[in-house]
Amino acid sequence: MIHSLFLINAAGDIFLEKHWKSVVSRSVCDYFFEAQERASEAENVPPVIPTPHHYLLSVYRHKIFFVAVIQSEVPPLFVIEFLHRVVDTFQDYFGVCSEVMIKDNVVVVYEVLEEMLDNGFPLATESNILKELIKPPTILRTVVNTITGSTNVGDQLPTGQLSVVPWRRTGVKYTNNEAYFDVIEEIDAIIDKSGSTITAEIQGVIDACVKLTGMPDLTLSFMNPRLLDDVSFHPCVRFKRWESERILSFIPPDGNFRLLSYHVSAQNLVAIPVYVKHNISFRDSSSLGRFEITVGPKQTMGKTVEGVIVTSQMPKGVLNMTLTPSQGTHVFDPVTKLLSWDVGKINPQKLPSLKGSMSLQAGSSKPDENPTINLQFKIQQLAISGLKVNRLDMYGEKYKPFKGIKYMTKAGKFQVRT
Amino acid sequence: MSGNGLSYSEQGGEAAPELGQEAATTTTPSIPAAFGLFCSDIKKNEDLKQMLESSKDSAKLDAMKRIVGMVAKGKNASELFPAVVKNVASKNIEIKKLVYVYLMRYAEEQQDLALLSISTFQRALKDPNQLIRASALRVLSSIRVPIIVPIMMLAIKEASSDLSPYVRKNAAHAIQKLYSLDPEQKEMLIEVIEKLLKDRSTLVAGSVVMAFEEVCPERIDLIHKNYRKLCNLLVDVEEWGQVVIIHMLTRYARTQFVSPWKVVEEYSEKNFYESDEEQKEKDQKVKDTYTMDPDHRLLLQNTKPLLQSRNAAVVMAVSQLYWHLAPKSEAGIVSKSLVRLLRSNREVQYIVLQNIATMSIQRKGMFEPYLKSFYVRSTDPTMIKTLKLEILTNLANEANISTLLREFQTYVKSQDKQFAAATIQAIGRCATNITEVTDTCLNGLVCLLSNKDEIVVAESVVVIKKLLQTQPAHHGEIIKHMAKLLDNITVPVARASILWLIGEYCERVPKIAPDVLRKTAKSFTNEDDLVKLQILNLGAKLYLTNSKQTKLLTQYVLNLGKYDQSYDIRDRTRFIRQLIVPNEKSGALSKYAKKIFLAQKPAPLLESPFKDRDHFQLGTLSHTLNTQATGYLELSDWPEVAPDPSVRNVEIAESVPDSFGGFTCLLSSFFLICSDSEDTEKKKKGISKKITTSNSSDTESASSEESSSDSKSESDSKSDSEPGKSRCTTSSKVTTQVSVPTKTHELLHRMSGKGLAAHYHFSRQPGIFGDRMVSVQVTVTNTTDHKIENIHIEEKKLPSGMRMHEFSPIECLEPAGSVTVSVGIDFCDSTQMASFQLCTKDDCFNVSIQPPVGELLLPVTMSEKDFKKEQGMLTGMNETSTAIPVAPQNSTRLVVIEKLVKAANLGVVPSGQDNIHRFAAKTVHSGSLVLVTVELKESSTAQLVINTEKTVIGSVLLRELKPVLSQG
């Protein structure tokens, strides 16, 4: 399926190549560079590019293009999903997935890639299994390795690959047994000029960090499972149990993983926790424009809104902006025309605002659209949909684990049109 | 360099060459830079070679790491091959792995040297550890050296019957590698695939289906027997395997089931092609009484939970399956999951949106409730924006058009002008599709004509032109407005569109049109070719309708055109002149000039660019590219009449190919009972989980059919328990009813065996102990009141050439307990007895097994055509035949097949004629074909013909089959 993989950085250098079948010359990437040139921005490069003998499927993440070369018909999502899995694995291994990191750990990268695909077909993609085969580098281990000459390659064999629960490694032992679950909800919304909601939906995930000894069997139940309209599970979740009882029952992988992602049904009205008052105007005659934004809390259930960042892509005609914020810091990049205002916490008594003027290119006409405002924010200890975990039980092991649940609401793609 | 220094200090023996190297380093600065670079490169490799030859693992490892670094950067490291390959047998796992990596990369270039490593892998293939066996096979098969094809073939064959499912999985991968190396091996590989398809392990399923798709996707007949198993295993297969299996099953289902789609829809599409009235009526009748094949339902039911997968590829695969296979009323369930994927990365969005675009053209209703999920955000990349717009346009209808148009208004103002232009196109499409809003849209577009951005204006003009064409009657005003625009607008397409409009409707704007021609005649030389053509057109049309005012102008334009640089324009000018200016030569044609130029033109149809993509299977690369990709497999149309559904019936015994004595027998009956008691599709998962929780040995895979030795003690303890035993016997009865002969033969009577009794029967399972072995199930029962210990086989007195694979000794058999074990015997295609001693701790008993000739065969599937071809080659000496009487109740096809298959292990060959039945098999040992034909004649007789090289077997078989049909 996947013939070869090329990693290309922002400057257009191929800094890693790996082949699973016969070697494909790196000149095949020329077609990719061509397409890259045609697309103005990196994210406009088409993910599928046909060439006379091959097809190039690429994903763009962390400023790196992962380009897979394939030779014949294959579901494109298969390859794309796999490439994303590769990026996730690198991130899992090295903390960040960057060109420098990959170059520094090129041997580990190569070993991991070797295990992930056999003849271009995915072999081991579960991070639990991979980590058993090839241990991720840590500072301590690097030091120890240089002194003792021992290796990163696990000396025991990956028995997990053969078990019924392939996602969990065997022989897990902890002195402190803990299981943490983060319920994180993101609001995607488009708000129109007048402040009314055009579309709003809530997407949630439950991320877990489970460090439990042995083979624990967990069940997680909700107070109001009906809220969950559409769900997708980690393979460990027993689907039948969910169908019949609306309970999540699973033997967890070891470490961090995403247990569940869900969509809250569209019937429920979505509470919008913030509002933006804006007054942005360009005048036809003068080369000055007015700019004023105020951000305030709306339905926050008494919680504070923090981590607020306002960004806006200004029209091309804007040369510079002179603004004064009532709190936080702001930056305007005159090249990319991107305004970014890091607000911080919203104090309901004293609403943060950003006021000032814009200088426009002399002679250019007034832009016909006001810029849209993108908002980021966080609200701790609140799941905006009202989802609540009822209880978490463990079977199959004797000890008493420490359990913790955290809720958080974030802005997803939150846009205000002006 | 620290590693180097280390080896240097510790190895006096190597000091000398290193010193020499040191000297080289000192000389480098003095020579020219380019040469120095080259030189240091050579030197570096030298030093790597030294490190590889050192006896310290750490130095070797260091060197290997640097070499892999070079490989990763794409630098050529092939000259190190001899030094690297020596380390293939290293004890250090990491060195070994890195050597493997290197080997796979360069073996193709250095074939001769690569051969040095082969023996290491061959040895590892015999390793007791399954993971080492697997990885040896993996590397061996990845070395692309044609000389080792036979070795690979052998290794694959062996691995495909390995006890470990993990090794078998790797064998499936190796099949594809061997196939791409040497396509000649196809036939042999298909045999292995056939064998592995029968595997029950979830580990193997995905990989073998992948191999099937790559090697022999046309052999759909191999799937029949495994169809239900694959459906049931699907939930437990790893996600990548799921995608491949689902795609394959989609293709399969389209060839095997009849269409579940509504008669009416089918009908209106079809009747264009069908001239035959009768056929239609018949069709109708069939569809009126449509009930879904239970197997078809099974597939839909078992794939549905996978919509909840976290893997976008799986969700997409299930969606396309529902789209192509489910009744239209059920396909709707996939839309929610597809919309969920839109939250994913940009690349996933791109593919999913493309597929939704195709779906939304045909079935609007599916995505209408999710309209707002396709609203465009200013941060989306342009390609995502355009796709979303496309879908919004497809979903537009009377009810939602007003909201949509309001949304479109914001898009038109977008800073992304390319997207704004696409929006205008979309508005145009909405306007033509929904007549209620045509006027509103038109007005909106006219407003856009005063937009400052030229691209927007130009696009509006083009769209307006198309809209006006659909209803030109009362739009004189708009045309006038556009004529005014001509002064300012510079985009060629827009100018051309305006000119065409004025020319086409010049009679509606009689005063303006000549003036426009005057203006453009002035600027003619500076115009774009596209515009020039339209000026000529306008001139011609005006000449015909209003020659008084425009005759001179037109001639002026035509003269300009005559000397234009572009031959297209010169050509057009000549053509127009001949047509409209009457002279002697032009003759009859110019009379019709007006009709030619001012004919009623059909309005252009504004269509989705995704209209023509639906002939590709959704979710495929070809669909994304809208061209057929290499290796694309066409999805066939539904068959008119479903092929025989009974081909998917499976005998339970065969569904557990690797049976190992009592344990598997027990296990399969365990499944059987569970499937009776709880009707769930995930039953296997549940059970396997139960097993692991009760017994934490994790080497047992989901269906735990392997590791007989490990689990033997367990199996013994289970078989001792009373219920276990009874289940075992019932299940074997079930199996015998289907195809395995009911007949059990006595091996040892309890009287002569001092209380130990043994029976045997032929289980007809191919290739457990090797290709040439017939497998025999021996049931040993203890009828005494004390334990019998250490039951085993001794003193085999076999005729020459015969071989026997014994069962591993049974340590202990409780009173009244019984155990079933398998032995494999290679009878060398003769009916001679295999004699041996069945021994216990205290006694030995002489026993023997004599095979009926029907059990020395293995069924073969072949087509009728192949059968006839083979039969043609086996005539004369090789043919035996006789006429036999047939009992009247035996004359139907089903009975004949049932009786013959019971009597001998034959494979049924599909037959075109009702009265002729054909069966094919091959002998177990030598693989010679045995072809059996039964031709039913009138007056209850039949002609029985057997063709085979093995004349002895042929005649014995004839004798044995004779009474089968005559008995009632």
UniProtKB/TrEMBL annotation, chain A:
Q: This protein's superkingdom?
A: Eukaryota
Q: How does it sit in the membrane?
A: Peripheral membrane protein
Give the GO biological process terms: anterograde synaptic vesicle transport; intracellular protein transport; synaptic vesicle endocytosis
Quote the Gene3D superfamilies the UniProt record gives: 3.30.450.60, Mu homology domain, subdomain B
Quote the Pfam families the UniProt record gives. Answer: Adap_comp_sub (PF00928), Clat_adaptor_s (PF01217)
Q: Where is the MHD domain?
A: 176-417
Coiled-coil positions are none
Record localization: Golgi apparatus; Cytoplasmic vesicle membrane
Q: Which GO terms describe its cellular component?
A: axon cytoplasm; clathrin adaptor complex; cytoplasmic vesicle membrane; GABA-ergic synapse; glutamatergic synapse; Golgi apparatus; presynapse
UniProt keyword Transport present: yes
Q: Which PROSITE patterns match?
A: CLAT_ADAPTOR_M_1, CLAT_ADAPTOR_M_2, MHD
CDD domains hit by this protein? AP-3_Mu3B_Cterm, AP3_Mu_N
Q: What's in the keyword line of the UniProt record?
A: Cytoplasmic vesicle, Golgi apparatus, Membrane, Protein transport, Transport
Matching InterPro entries, A to Z?
Answer: Adaptor_comp_med_subunit (IPR050431), AP2_Mu_C_sf (IPR036168), AP_mu_sigma_su (IPR022775), Clathrin_mu (IPR001392), Clathrin_mu_CS (IPR018240), Longin-like_dom_sf (IPR011012), MHD (IPR028565)
Task: Show the PANTHER family listed in the entry.
Answer: AP COMPLEX SUBUNIT MU
Similarity section: Belongs to the adaptor complexes medium subunit family.
Protein name (database record):
AP-3 complex subunit mu-2
UniProtKB/TrEMBL annotation, chain B:
Annotated region (Disordered) at 1-24, 683-744
Q: Which SMART domains does this one have?
A: AP3B1_C
Phosphoprotein in keyword set: yes
Q: Where is the composition biased (Polar residues)?
A: 1-10
BP GO annotations: intracellular protein transport; vesicle-mediated transport
User: Mostly located where?
Assistant: membrane
Regarding the membrane, this protein is recorded as: Peripheral membrane protein
List, alphabetically, the GO terms of the cellular component aspect.
Answer: AP-3 adaptor complex; clathrin-coated vesicle membrane; Golgi apparatus
User: What is the superkingdom listed in this entry's lineage?
Assistant: Eukaryota
Residue ranges annotated as compositionally biased, kind Low complexity, are 689-706, 729-742
List keywords of the entry alphabetically: Cytoplasmic vesicle, Golgi apparatus, Membrane, Phosphoprotein, Protein transport, Transport
Q: Where is the AP-3 complex subunit beta C-terminal domain?
A: 701-832
Bias kind Basic and acidic residues: ranges: 709-725
Q: Does the keyword Transport apply?
A: yes
InterPro entries according to UniProt = AP3_beta, AP3B1/2_C, AP3B_C, AP_beta, ARM-like, ARM-type_fold, Clathrin/coatomer_adapt-like_N
Q: Enumerate the subcellular locations listed in this protein's record, separating them with semicolons.
A: Cytoplasmic vesicle, Clathrin-coated vesicle membrane; Golgi apparatus
- Report the protein's function: Subunit of non-clathrin- and clathrin-associated adaptor protein complex 3 (AP-3) that plays a role in protein sorting in the late-Golgi/trans-Golgi network (TGN) and/or endosomes. The AP complexes mediate both the recruitment of clathrin to membranes and the recognition of sorting signals within the cytosolic tails of transmembrane cargo molecules. AP-3 appears to be involved in the sorting of a subset of transmembrane proteins targeted to lysosomes and lysosome-related organelles.
Similarity comment text for this entry: Belongs to the adaptor complexes large subunit family.
According to UniProt, the name of this protein is: AP-3 complex subunit beta
Species in which this protein is naturally found: Strigops habroptila
